Amino acid sequence: MSTRVSTKKLKDAVNQAFNAAGKKPAIPITEYLTIKVEDGKLNLVVTDGNAYTQVTIDAPKADDLLATVDIRKFSALVKRTTAEHITLSMVDDHLKVSGNGSYKLAQPVDEDKYVFEVEMPETPEPVVEGVINADDFTRALVITRPAVATDVTQPELVGFYLDKDRVAGTDSLQFSLTKVKGVDTPLLIPVEMVNAVMVMRDNIDYKVYPDSMVGFETPAIKIVGRQLEGIEDYPIEGMTAIYEKEFEGFCRVDRREMLDALGRVNLFVEAYDMNAVTLTFGENQISLSSKDSAGSDTVAYQRTDKQKYIPFSCRIDVTSMIKLVTAQDGDTLHVSYGDERVIRMDNGDTTQFLALVLEDE
Questions:
Q1: Is 50 exceeded by the pLDDT of residue 361?
Q2: Stated pTM of the model
């Protein structure tokens, strides 16, 4: 009784499962992968402790098989296999992997000596469902990621806000809004679930279930997990109000030139400088300088009839600005300025805001 599959297809599937798995020693189940072969399909199931992900490939002539293995070891073994096919079989309660050589992987057991299984949760009938384009959606997630909070003291900000026409993220000092055809009901999705969604291709079916459960599904990948709590506290209204604000100054620069200049000046920013770099908006260029002007640079404006110059200087967190500008994917950066609290950066359908660094007392 064995399962023989294409090494290339298995490598791709294992890589997708590996990226979705939590691999957290404090949560043992997140370090394992369950392989389930039935009805001509090979399913790989993992979890990050909240969301469960199932990756499926065809195995039309395979025998049924069920095994749970250490995801790191199995992934490394498959990755290093150069044979055209890999054969999986059970030998003495071990998973035998045959390709270039022959290897036996032990299965984990619980306190009652039973092999445990990473299983997809059962789901009730969805209350909302629809379809989103994977390429547009994952692009919006990639651009938004740098703005999403990592500090767990702000739990409702450690995730992505989705609604019918945008993806948003913030850590209260910066935020990003990208216009995209989204979901028909507001959702607050954990970063870990987004990591799994970002490997999806083609169209994605989304399903919203009772009890804050949500699912994303393609023919090859299925994800089910819980939303973050606190969506009612997410500051989307405040973000929208800032988005609608008019700025007095406006200029346009080459995004790559701006990013290079930020990187050069950042070399002269010291830890005690609060990562601050001064931006001075002139008639023809933006001047950048570190504290005491140890590093300074300029970025020329791209001429446009819409340009509006006002004298203005501000300090920004250069590390945050580099991350935001890097996440964008267009050639041109539209910068709006003149507000004492934030600057605005637009690139196509993405708008980013960065809070200014206050002057030293």
A1: no
A2: 0.87
In whole angstroms, give the CA distance from residue 102 to residue 113.
Answer: 26
pLDDT in tens, 329-342: 989 999 999 999 99
Question: What pLDDT, on the 0 to 100 scale, is given for residue 149?
Answer: 93
Beta pairing partners, 4: 87
The amino acid sitting at 52 is Y
Q: Which helix (H) or strand (E) holds 347?
A: strand 342-347
How far, in Å, CA of 250 to CA of 75, rounded?
50
From CA 339, how far away is CA 28, in angstroms rounded?
49
Of 117 and 116, the one with more pLDDT: 117
Q: Count Cβ atoms below 10 Å from residue 293 Cβ, excluding itself.
A: 11
Which structure tokens are listed for 32?
């394992």
68's CB contacts (< 8 A; 6+ apart) are: 32, 33, 34, 35, 107, 108, 115, 116, 117, 118
Contact 149, 170 (CB under 8 A): yes
Q: State how far the alpha carbon of 206 is from the alpha carbons of 217, 221, 289, in Å.
A: 6, 12, 46
pLDDT at 152 (0 to 100) = 76
Mean pLDDT value of segment 294-313 = 90
Q: What angle do CA 25, 170, 344 make, to 5 degrees?
A: 145
Residue 48 to residue 286: CA distance in whole angstroms? 44
Query: Which residues, other chains included, contact 254 with Cβ-Cβ below 8 Å and sequence gap of 6+?
Result: 299, 302, 331, 332, 333
CB atoms within 10 A of CB 214: 24
185-195 residue pLDDT tens:
999 999 888 88
Tell me, what's the pLDDT at 1? 67
330: left (phi over 0), alpha (psi -120 to 50) or beta: beta
